[in-house]
Specification:
Order of helices and strands: HHHHEEEHH
Number of helices: 6
Largest sheet: 3 strands, antiparallel
Number of strands: 3
Distance between the termini: 104 Å
Shape: globular
Helix content: 40-55%
Structural class: alpha+beta
Strand content: 5-15%
Strand order of the largest sheet: 1-2-3
Length: 197
């Protein structure tokens, strides 16, 4: 037992940290190979065709940094009375504003942040700006920067997809309308019809 754990146990015998157990989420190599093969068959070639390069495949985080992040998240959540339900990894892309390493430019990256229950739904949250009185969601914070986050639940995602389709249709209709108003053609339709005359 470490010295720190011994000291903590001495001052607070009931505050013991549970011993880690084997995670139930560990994969077998058969499952891993299945997932890697599916990725190989569906992602790299498509990405290469679209962007001209194969994208990031591995994101490595410093173990101590992740461990500290999780401990700090627990500390903030405890101070604010927030029960964390998970951690999510969100894909992004490095830009000139977010990396100094030119080799990373335009490559995918992963950002991680906590989830909690808000109004009966599990959503990504901004733990730093949340208080005991109000949990601030990731969606709310991104909205302040003009970004519409639609990935907390299927309902938001489907509504966003429907809005995109509606917007495409409106753009198409507007283009058609502009074309009809602004262009002449050599098609005529002012004739006398028969029958009745």
């Amino acid at each position: 037992m470490s010295i720190l754990k011994s000291i903590c146990k001495f001052f607070c015998p009931d505050c013991s940290t549970p011993e880690p157990t084997k995670p139930e989420t560990l994969l077998s190599y058969k499952e891993i190979v299945s997932m890697l093969t599916a990725y190989d068959k569906t992602r790299p070639e498509t990405h290469h065709k679209m962007f001209g390069f194969e994208d990031s495949r591995v994101n490595t985080f410093n173990f101590a940094d992740v461990k500290n992040y999780l401990a700090y998240a627990e500390k903030l959540a405890d101070e604010k009375g927030i029960k964390l339900t998970g951690i999510s990894f969100v894909k992004g892309v490095y830009t000139q504003d977010t990396t100094k390493d030119k080799e990373y430019m335009n490559h995918e990256n992963l950002m991680y942040l906590p989830k909690a229950m808000v109004n009966g739904e599990e959503v990504l949250i901004d733990l730093v700006n949340s208080t005991k009185e109000k949990i601030v969601t990731f969606k709310e914070r991104l909205g302040r920067y003009g970004y519409n986050w639609n990935y907390d639940n299927a309902k938001d995602f489907k509504a966003n997809e429907a809005a995109k389709q509606q917007e495409k249709q409106e753009v198409k209709s507007a283009k058609m309308s502009l074309l009809a108003e602004d262009s002449e053609s050599f098609v005529a339709n002012f004739s006398h019809i028969s029958p009745p005359h």
